[in-house]
Design brief:
Structural class: mainly alpha
Number of strands: 2
Helix content: over 70%
Oligomer: single chain
Number of helices: 5
Strand order of the largest sheet: 1-2
Order of helices and strands: HHHHEEH
């Protein structure tokens, strides 16, 4: 089964991660910093933006893939993925500034909202019905096929 939403968002996330890495390298080259942040606040912020991205993205992609596998492709899952990517683009621009700002807030709030929405939906899937059939796998249903 092909998971077009998850594949698309994973591809976008990979490109976004590369962009975040390139932003770090640009500051490293300019500041001649080979390891660590060299006390450079901008470099530290950009490194943190990429780390923050890496902290959230795998879980979002796993949830998206499992939901898409369980329930199929649908418009709201596309929306969740697109909103997640937009939020993750806004967040690093916000971290470049040394003060609190709407870009950083929008980035993390959209990340949390998407993650929470996916988590809640994922938690409901095993216990909801589809066409009147409970979708939970039990040991009885596994042995019935043998």
């Amino acid at each position: 089964m092909i998971l077009p939403i998850t594949l698309t968002i994973a591809g976008a996330a990979a490109i976004l991660n590369l962009w975040l890495a390139i932003r770090i390298v640009a500051v490293r080259v300019k500041g001649k910093v080979l390891i660590g942040d060299g006390g450079n606040a901008l470099l530290s912020a950009r490194m943190r933006a990429q780390l923050n991205f890496i902290e959230y993205t795998p879980l979002v992609l796993i949830l998206m893939g499992l939901i898409e596998f369980a329930r199929g492709t649908n418009h709201w899952l596309w929306g969740a993925g697109i909103i997640y990517i937009i939020g993750r683009v806004l967040h690093p621009f916000g971290l470049d500034r040394q003060t609190a700002n709407p870009l950083r807030a929008a980035g993390i709030l959209t990340t949390w909202a998407v993650l929470l929405g996916l988590a809640i939906y994922a938690l409901t899937i095993p216990y909801t019905t589809r066409d009147g059939v409970i979708t939970t796998v039990t040991s009885d249903s596994l042995s019935a096929g043998h």
